[in-house]
Fold each of these.
Amino acid sequence: MQIKKKMNPLLKDFNTAPFSKIANSDYKPAIKEAIQIAKKEIDVIVENDEEPTFENTTVALDFTGEKLNRITSIFFNLNSAETNDEIQKIAQEISPWLSEFRNDITLNDVLFKRVKTVFDKKESLALTSEQEMLLEKQYKGFARNGANLNESDKAALRKIDTELSKLSLKFGENVLAETNAYEMHLTDEKDLSGLPESAKEAAKQLANEKEKDGWIFTLDYPSYIPFLTYADNRTLRKELAIAAGKKGFQENEFNNEKIVLKIVGLRHKRANLLGYTSHAHFVLEERMAETPKKVIDFSNELLEKAKPAAENEFKNLENYAKKLDGIEQLQKWDGAYYSEKLKKEIFDLDQEILKPYFKLENVIDGVFEIANRLFDLQFEEIFNVDKYHEDVKTYHVTDADGNFISLFYADFHPRKGKRNGAWMTSYKSQQIKNGINERPHVSIVCNFTKPTITKPSLLTFNEVTTLFHEFGHALHGMLANTTYNSLSGTSVSWDFVELPSQVLENWCYEKEALELFAKHYKTGEVIPMEYVKKIKESASFHEGMQTLRQLSFGLLDMKWHSENPSEITSVKTFENDVFAGTKLYPDVPENAMSTAFSHIFQGGYSAGYYSYKWAEVLDADAFEYFLEEGIFDKKVATKFKENVLSKGGTEKPMTLYKRFRGKEPKPDALLKRAGLL
C-alpha cells in the first residue's frame, strides 16, 4: 500500500496564512524549496536573450521571490510573537540561507548588468514617478550592497552578512530568555502597598497559573511598569528596575556584550567594504536625514531646547521626593513613582482613575470609528481565518463601497513566547499584478494588561496611545495602493515610517475623539470632560525629561554606528561616555542599555533610532493642519490618505509630505506641543 505524502502547507498556494496546518518541521524544507523557486525566477531574467527593458528586468525582478517572502514573513513574525526553542533553533539555521540568497541576487553580475542597462537609459523611457522610484531603488539596492565589488570583497561581504544575521537573532533570543527567566515572587501583602487593585490581581493570577502562593511580578511591561510606578516599597522597586536593566548584561549564557561589539564591528567593516565611512553613513544616504552630521545637529538642536527644561523638571522632582519621603538622591527606580505622585498632585489626575474608561474592546472600537470618519474604513470581526494563537483577533476591512481593503490581525496580550514591546507587521504585501490589486494582510502585536477574573483588559493611557501608534502603522499598510510590492505600504524611508503612527496618537488627546470610545466599562458613562482637560494639560508633563531620554537613545545609536568601533572594549564605559551629556540619574553599575537595545541590535533601527524624534516634527506639523481645519475634516484626511498613506515609497518622502501639507515642516509645532518654546 502506498502512503500518500502530506504536501507541505507552506508550499501550497494560499491566500491567508495557514497557521493551524503548519508544523515546525515544515519550515526548513519549505524555505529551502522557496529559495530554489526564487532562484529559477531570477534565472529566467538572467537568461533572457532580449535587450533588458523596464518590463522584462525591473518589473520581473520586483515580482520574484513572492512565495519565499510569504513563508518567511510567517516564520519570522511567529519567531517574535509565538516562539519556542525549536523555532529559535530553526531561525539560526535558515538565517544564513536567506542571507546567502540575498547576496546571490545583489552580487549576481549578469543580473546587475541588466538592471544597470535599464537604469542608464531611464531618461529615454518616459517612466512614471513610481516606475522611476522602483528603478532607482533597485539599482541602488545592487550598487549599495556590493554589486561593484571584486570577487574577494564579495566573498568577504557574504561572510559578514551571514554572521550578522546569526548575531542579531542570538541577541534577541538572549533578551527574551532574560525576560522570561526573572520573576519577583512576593508572599507578604505589605510589599504590595501602593499598587492598584488591577496590578495586584494580575500578579495573583500569574502566581496561581504557576501554582504558587502570593503574587508574581515579571519584566513584561504590564507587570513591570505598574510596579515601578506605584509600589511604595523602594527596595523592591530597585530590585525590579535593576533586574530589567541587567538583561543581556549578566555573567551568564545570555550575555550580549560580546555580541554588541561584534555586531557594530561587522557593520562598520561592511560599510567600509562598500566605500562608506561608517554604518551610519551607509544607512543615512537613503534616509530623509542623509548624513550622520545632520542627525547629530538635529538631535543637539533639540537637546539645547530640552535640556534646561529637563534639568529643571528633574530638580523639582528631586525636591518633591525629598520633601515627601526625605529621599536625598533620586534614583532610576524612583522616577516613575514620584513623577506619578507629582503629576497626580499638580493635575489631580490619577492614571488608575482613567483605566476604567479604556476597556480594550472599547478602545479598539474607537480607533476603528476614527479610521472610519477619516478614511471611510469599516472593520468587521471575522472568525473563519486561521490564527497562530487564540488571543489573536481577525478583521475584514472594507471601504465605503464595500470593496475589500485588507485583512487585519491584532494580538494584544503578553505570553511566554512573545517578545516585549509593540510592533506592526505584514503577512502579505499589497501590489497590482496581472491587473489585479492584491490587498494586504496586516498585523499589530502588543503587550497590554490581560483581563483578570473580575475585570476586562483595562488600558493605561500610555497603552491607549501605543494602540493608536501601531494602528497608524497598520493604516499605512492597509491603505497601500501602489503597483509594486517593494514600494508598497510601510516600504518607505525609516525616518518617514513613523509619521502615520505618531500622527494618529494625537487623536487620543482630543475631546471629540475620546467621546467616541472612552466610556466606563461598568456604567457606560463617557469620560468626564475635566479628565479630558487634565489629560491634555498633562500631555507635556516632564516633556523635557522625556525628550532628553529619547535623544540619549538616538545619540547612543549614532555613536555606535557613526565612528570606528574597533577601539571599544567595554560596552558599559562606552555608554557612560555617550550618556554624559544627557544624564540626570546616577549610573547603575549593574545595568547597561545596549545589551537589551533590541531596536538597533535586533530590529531595523540601527543608525535610525533618531527617526522617532525626526518624525515627531512631521507629526506635530501634520496634526496642526488637522487642528486648523477640524480633527475629522474630510478634505485634510483625504489629502493625508492620498499623499502619504496610500503612496508608500513611490516618491521621495519630502515630496509626498509637501504635497499633503503645502510646505516643509518646521520644528516649531513640536516645540509648542511639548511646551519647550
Amino acid sequence: MKLVKGRLTVILSLLFFSQFSFAQSGGNNNYLLISLVAVGVVILVFAILSLADNLMHIEGKKAGIDSKKTNIGIFPRISDFFAKKAPNYVVDGAGYYPTTKGHNLKLAGKPTGDIKTIHTNRYALKPTDFNGISPIPKVVVEVGSEVKAGDPLFYDKKRPEIMYCAPVSGEVVEVKRGAKRAIAEIIILADKEISYREYEVPNLEKVDRQELKSFLTKSGVWPMLNQRPFDIVASIDEDPRDIFISTFNTAPLALDSNLVIAGNENAFQKGCDVLNALTDGSVYLGLDARGDAPSKGFSDVTGVKKNYFSGKHPVGNVGVQMHHVNPIKGNDKVWSVGLQDVITIGKLFLEGKFDASRLVSLGGSQVSTPSVIRTYQGASIGDLVEGNLSDEKNRIIAGDVYTGKESTTENFIGYKDDQLTVIKEGDKYEAFGWLLPITPRPSISGTFPNFLFPDFEFEGETNTHGEKRAFVVTGQYESVLPMDIYPQHLMKAILAGDFEKMEGLGINELSEEDIALCEFVCTSKMPLQKILRDGLEMMREQA
C-alpha cells in the first residue's frame, strides 16, 4: 500500500504542476496535460497490478505452492528469461535447481583418485559426535572386553533403545573421560581381521515399520539417521515427513562421491529401499549437475525422487537442498542420511552385518601425498597421517576447513567424518597484513584480486588476520548463503534469546554446516556455528 500511495502522490504532483504550466501558457499546451494524464493512468494501473501480483504470491505461499517452480503471478519473472538451462542428462520429471550464491574455496593438496587401505591399530566411538545425547551415556562394556563389529558399546539414558555400536572388532582398552567425568571416547584395540556380529535381517516387504525401527536401533545404524530441526539423532517415536540424501560434497578438498559409489551400487539401492520403508513421504536424492553426468549408481536408483543441483558451495549441503526442494514448515520432522551411511544400511540388509568401512579424503597443503584412504569409522588420526606430513607446525582438522574440529595425532576421526585436512598453523603475526596484502590468501573481498586467478590454489592457514570486532551488518552472509534466510538477523535473535524471531527467521532449517561459509566470510569474526548450536539447543529445550 505504501508503494501505491507513493505513486499516487507522484501522479497528483505531476497533474498540479501541469495545471500550473497550462495556466501560464494561456491554454496553448493541451498536449502536455494530456500526456501527463496518460502517464499517470499508466502508472496507476501498473501500481494496482503490482499489488495484485504480490498478493497472489503471498496467497500462493500460504497454499504451499513453490514459487520457484511455478510462477503464479501476473508478470513473468526475469529468471524465466535468463534462467540457466538444465544439463542434457537431467531426465524428465527430475527437478533442477541452479544456485547463484556461495563461494568455492580452492585449496592446495587435493587428493588423487588412488585409494590405499590403512587398517589402524586403534579406533574410537565418541558420544560427543552426537548432538543432544546425555553427556554420560550408559557404557555396556568394560576395559578388557572383547567386542565384534556391531556389538553395542553404549546407549543414551534418555533413549535407551538406540544402541551405539563398535565399528571394528577387538579389545576395549580404554574408556576415556573428559570434564565432569563425561564419556569422551571408548577406544578399541582392533583385530587384524575384523569379525562381525551376525544379524537376522527382516524381510523389507513383510516387516512392520515398528519392527524395522527396532531392528535398526539394535544393529547400530540408527544413529546414522539425522533429524531436523535441531540436527540430532532421529527420534523413533515419530515418522519423518521426508528423507533427504545428498550424493555430493562441495566443501574444499571433499571426497569424490564417484569413488564412494563404485562397487557399492547394490548396497546404495538397498539402503534407499530401507529408508523408503521408514516414511510415508518421499526419499529425495540430490545429484550433482555442476559438470559431467553423475555416476549411474546414483542416477539409476529407483524408488526415490531425484533433484539436480548446480552452483557454488554450499550447494552440496543437504540442508540447502531441503530448502529448495521441500523446506521444513511448522512441526515438520525431516531426516537426512549421509552417502556412506546409506551404503552401510544397505550392506546390513544384504550381508547381515554392520560394516562401518569408510573412504576418507586426506588432503591439504601440509600433506606430502594427498590420497583417499579406505579405513573404518573412528580410525586413529595418528596412524592415518603417519609419515605423510610436512615438518612445519601444522593444524590437523577432522573434517573440512569450514566445519571440521581441531585435532591431534592422539585423536580419532569423528563418526561422520570422511575427510582429514592438514594446513599451516597460523600462529605468526603478520605486520600490516591487512594493509599490505602481499601473500595470496582466500577471501571474497575485492581487496584481493582473486577473481583474476580463478584456478589458483591457496595454501591456507588458520590465522584470522584480525581480532574479534563489533557485530556489524555487512550483507556478507546473505551473499554466500543460497537460502531465503537472513542469517545476520537470525544470529542476533539467538544472542537476544528471542524464540519467536528465531523460529520465524528459519532456525529449524539450519545446521552448522549451512552457516559455516558465513562464518568464513564474517568481517566481525563471530563464531556463528557455535551461536547457531546454542540457538538450536534453546529451541529443542522449548519443544
Amino acid sequence: MKTTLRPRPGWRRCGLYLPLALASALALGQAQTIRVVPTYHNLGVHLTLATAPSPATTIALALKEEGATGDFCEGHPLSRIASHRFAGSAFGLKPDTLYSLRLSSPALFPDQVVKMRTRSELWPEATNGTYHVALDGDDRSDGRSAATALRTLRRALELVRAGEKVVLHGGRYYEGDLEVYVGSSGEAEAMPSQPIVIESAPGGQAIFDGSDPDFSPQWELHDAGAGVYRTPCARRPYHAYLNGGHLYHFGVLDHLRTNRWGQSSGYYADGAHLYVRLPDGGPLGTNRISIPRFTFALMLMVNHYQIRGLEFCYYGYGRDPAALDLDNASSNVIERCAFHHTGRGVVLRHDSIHNTIQHCTFNEWPVDAFRWDAVKQGEPFGSEPYETGGVVVDGDHTVYHGNVIRSNRFERLFDGVHLFSDDATAPTEDLDFHDNLILDCGDDGIETDGVGSNCRIYGNVISNFLTGISVAPAALGPTYIFRNTLLDWRSVPSVEGEEDGRFHGYPIKLNHQMREEPWTQWVYLYHNTCATSAPDMDGFVFNYYWWYWTNIVSRNNIYAGTRLALLNVNEQCPIDFDYDNLFTTDPARFAAWNGTNYATLAAFRQGTGQERHGWAVDPGFVDAERPRLRPDSPLIDRGVRIAGINDGFLGGGPDVGAFETASGPVALRVTRVGGRVQTAWRVPPNSTWQLEVTPGLAPATWISALGPVQATGAPLEFEHTNAAAAGFYRLRSADR
C-alpha cells in the first residue's frame, strides 16, 4: 500500500528558505543582467544583454579573492550561447569565500564587477531533538529514546520537525513509496539553520528494502524445451531479481521462451503468472527469485534535509523507479549512502537546485553484462528499465542549477549518470560532477545528452565502458570536460554495429541526429587522459551524424588508441583541436579524416589544419594502471596555458593530460639484500642530486651517501646499497 504524507491545510508546495547567497542577479540599468550561481569550488556567470552586440564580441572574465592583495587574475572567457547571451565559469575556488568577478568587453563599457561567495562545506547540525526507529520499536511510542523507539520511518516523518534528527537502528526496513511534502513533517519544513537529518545509528546499518517479503512463489515447469517456469502472480513488477541481481525483463512471453535477446536468463509477467527462465535454461534448483513491492523509497518535496549512511535496494515495482526522488527539493545533502538494484539511485526533478550528492555508491549488477541490443531494443520496454543511471536529471520544463555530485562510486550500470535536461527551455545549469569513480558500464559512463549550460565535469575516473562521456547532443553550452581519466573503452556485439558486427567504443562521443534538436556547441575538452589497451580501438572518434555541432575545442589532451589515433567520418561539423597528443600502438596507421588516411602527424596537419602544435608520441605512463606521466615523458611542460584552467602548473609549462607531474626525483623501489637496504631512484634530465641517509631511524643526522649524481640531457636511474639495515633516505638538489 502506498503511504503518502499529505500537506496540512494552509501549506503550499514551494521551494522556500533558499539562502540569498546561493544565487545573485544584478540588473545594470536596462542594458544587461548578470547572474552568478555558486557551488563549493566554482562560480557560474550568466550575462544577458538587452540587444545583440557585434558577432566578434568577446567577454573577458577576471576574478579576485576579496581581501587578497594584487590585481584580478585572468579567468576563462565567457562563451556566446545566443545572440545576446553569454555564459562562463570561474574554477578551482575556495569554499565559503567571497570573490569579485570582473567582466570586460566593449559591449559592457565600463567594466562590470559583481561579488559572490562560494558555498560553505560546513552544514548545520540538527540539535533540537532525536527520534529513534528500530525493528523492535512501536509506532505508538514517543520515539525519543532507543528504549521507546518507533517502528517505521513513515511514523518518524510524521513527527519530526525542523532541527530534529531521525536515527534508524540497524536492520532491514521493508518500507517505500513515502512522499514527503512541505508541512507533512511536523509543524514546519526544515530551515537553512535547522535541517532535518535522517541517518543510521552509530554502529548499525539501516537498510531500506523495496522487495516484497510476502512473495512466495509456487513454481511449475511451463515449457520444458525452453526451460521456462511459472508461478501464479497477480502483480506485474517492472523489475525482478535473481539471487540478488537484476533479472532481465522480457516484454513478450515468446521472446523469453526463444531467448530473443540472447540473455542467459529473464522473466515475463502478465498479471496472472510470473514466468522465468534461469541461466541457460537450467533447473530452478536453489535459485532465489524476488520481486519488489514498492516503486521508490522516498520522494522528497522538501528542502534542507540531510540523509546519511543508509542503504537502499530492490525498488522498482512500477515504472520510473528510484530510491530517492527529489521533486522540487533544494539544498538537500545525500551522503555516504549505498544504492543498488533501484533502477535509478537519485532522481532530480522539478526545480531541484543546490543539492549535494557525495560519498555514495551505486550498483545495478549484472546490468553491465546485459547484451547491448537487449537493453536498447527489447520490446516493449526497450531501454526503460536499465538505461537510466545512478543519478538522473529528469528534465521536464523546470530549472536545475547549482547541484553538486562528487566523490561517488558508480559501478556495473548500463549508463553511469544522466546529467542534462531534455527541455531546451530549462537547461541543467551550473552543475558540478567531479572526482567520481565510474567502473564497468555497458554503454555510457557519463551522459550529457540534452541541454545544459555552465556544467563542469572534471577529475573523474571512468574505466571499462563503450563510451566514456556521451555528448549526444550537449546543447547550449558551455560544457567543460577537463582533467578526467578515461581508460579501456571496448567493443560490444550488436546487430546495428559496424561491418564486424560490433559497436566500437571511444572515450568521448559527439552525436547530433535530428535537425530539430538544439545544436551542440561550446564543448571544451581540456587536459583529459584517454587511453585503452583493448584491441582495434581508436583514440578519438567523430562518427557520422545528420546534423551540426560547432565550437568543439580540444587542448592538452592525451588520446591513445590501438587502431587509429583519431578518426573523423563527419564532413560538416567544425572542430578546433590543438596541443593534444595523438597516439596509437598500431605502427601501420595514424589518423583518418573524411575518407583520407594520414600516416604521420605532419601529413595530418597539412591535410586538415588541426593539431598544429600537437604531438604523436608514446605518452610515457608509469604503467597501464597508473596513467600518470613518468618524469621522462616528452609531454611534461609541453601543454599550452589556458587561463582559469591550468594556472597552477609546475615547471616550465602545463603537462599534457589529466595530471600535473612533479619534476623532482622519484623513488622507484626499496629492497632488502641480506642485511643491507638497496634503493633505486630516477632523477629528471639536466639536474644534479646528492643522496643522503641516516645511520638509523634518527632523522636528525644526515650523512652523504652518494653524489653528486648528475643527469645530463636525459633522465638517469641509479641504485645505492646502504650497509645499515634501516634508515631514512633523501635526495637533495645540488643545483641550488
Amino acid sequence: MTKTILLDGQSLTIEQVVEVAYGEANLPKVIIKADSQKQVQNAADAVQILLERGEVAYGITTGFGAFKDKVIPLEDVKTLQKNIVMSHAVGTGALYDTPTTRAIMLIRANTLARGHSGIRLSTLQFLLDMLNAGIHPAIPEKGSLGASGDLAPLAHMALVMIGMGEAEFDGRMMSGADALKSAGLQPVDLAAKEGLALTNGTSVMCALGTLLVHKSERLSGIVDVAGALSLEALNGTPLAFDERIHNLRPFPRQIETAKNMRNLLKGSEFTRDYDPANVQDAYTLRCIPQVHGAARDAVAYTRWVMEIELNSVTDNPLIFIDGEKIDVISGGNFHGEPLAISMDYLAIAITELGNISERRIMRLTDDCSNAQTLPAFLTKNGGLNSGFMLTQYTAAALATENKVLAHPSSVDNIPTSANVEDHVSMGLTAALNLRQIAENVTHILATELMAAAQGIDFRKDEVGAEANLGEGTAPIYARIREEVPFIEKDTILYEYISAVKKLINSGELDYLES
C-alpha cells in the first residue's frame, strides 16, 4: 500500500523529506490537505482581485529586483511570470542528484501550500504531479546567492513546469516538454505571481540542509562507534567516560556521548582498567565525549533551524487576507542567513569529527604513537608491505580539504541587482561545502573503522581469540568483517573502504544509545 504524505505548509518533518527523497521501491504519494487547498486558492483569487483593481504590487504588476519601480501593463502580467523563469535559469555546475531534486520539489510545494504566495492550486498541484510521477528537473548546483532565495536553481525547476528546460524521467534525461508528455502532463501557463512564487525562496539550501542534518546525525553516531573500536584496538581505558566526570561539566550531548561510549564498550576485554604505569590516554581517545558531544550540539542546532525552515513561507511578497482586505507585503523571508550560519556551524563541527578520526587513524598506524601495541601500519611484514600507510595519507588529505571548506560562507557578501540586494547569505554555498565535508568525513570514518578492525585482530594474539569486544562494538565489528577480511598482505584497499562507506550510508552500522 502506497503511503501518503499530506502537505499543509506547517507540519512537514525531516524524516518525511528523507523518505520522499530516498525512497525507492515504495515512494510515498504527496498530496495537499483539503484546508490548505482552500487557503492556496483564496490567495490566488486575491491576486486576481488586485489585478482587477489595477493596484501596483511588487512582482505582480512590477518588475523584479532593481526593476521594482517598473509598472507592468496588465496585458503583460502573464508574460512577466514566464520571463522571470526563463531569465533566471542561469545556473551552472553539476546537476543535483535525484534525492536532492525530489527534496527541493517537496519543500517548495510545502511552503506554497501555506497559502500566502498567490499561486493557483492547479499550478501547485502540477508541481506535485511532477514529483509523484518521477519527473525530476535538471537543476544545476551553483548560481544562488542565498538572498531572494535560490532564484537560479529554482528557475530551472520551474522551467520544466512550463515545458522548457531538461528533466530526468524513467532513468533518462530528456527535454522538459518530452518528460511532461511521457508522463501524460501538459505544461502550465503561468498566471500572475506564479513565476515569482516558484523561484523566490530558500527551498534548495533547505533541501540540502535537511538531507545533511540526516546524514550528520548518522555520522555523529558512527564516529562514536569508530572511536570505541579504536580504543579497543589501542588498549585504551574507558575510565575517562565515567559518568561522574561529565556530570561536573553538564553539556547534555557530552553526557550523552560518554554514556554512548560506556554502552558500546560494556563488557569489553580489549580495554584496560586503571594502570598506574599508564593512567590516561591521548586526547583523541580520552576527550571523545567533549569533542563528539560538541559536534552533536551543532547537529542538533541545525536540525532545529531546518525544522523551522521546512514549514516557513519564504517567498516575497506575501499575501494576507482579512475579510475583504488584501495586503501584499514585501519583506525578506527569502534571506538564507539562518540556514547559512547553521550550516557553517555544522560544517565546522563535522570537520572536527573528521579531524579527530584522522588522528586516531594516525595512532592506529604509527607504532611509536601507540607504544608498539600494534605493528607499524597495521601489517605483519612491514617494508615488503605498506599496509594501512596510505589510508592515513588520504584521510589527512581529506581532513585538510575540510579545513578549507569549513571557512564560513555566511560572512561573505557581494551586492547584486544594482545594489538593491546589497546583503546576501551565501547559504547555498555553505550547503554545498557542508555536503563535500560530510562526504569526506564518511570516507575518513570508513577508514578508521577498517583500521580499528585490523588492529583488534592483531590484539587477539595478546588478549585471546575468544576475548569479548564491547556489547555495542562486537556486532559492528562482525558486520565490518563480513565485508572486509583481515588484510594479511598488501592488496587493493579502496574497494574495501568503499564497502564500509556503503555500510555507513545504509545505516547498517548505526548505534543508538540505550
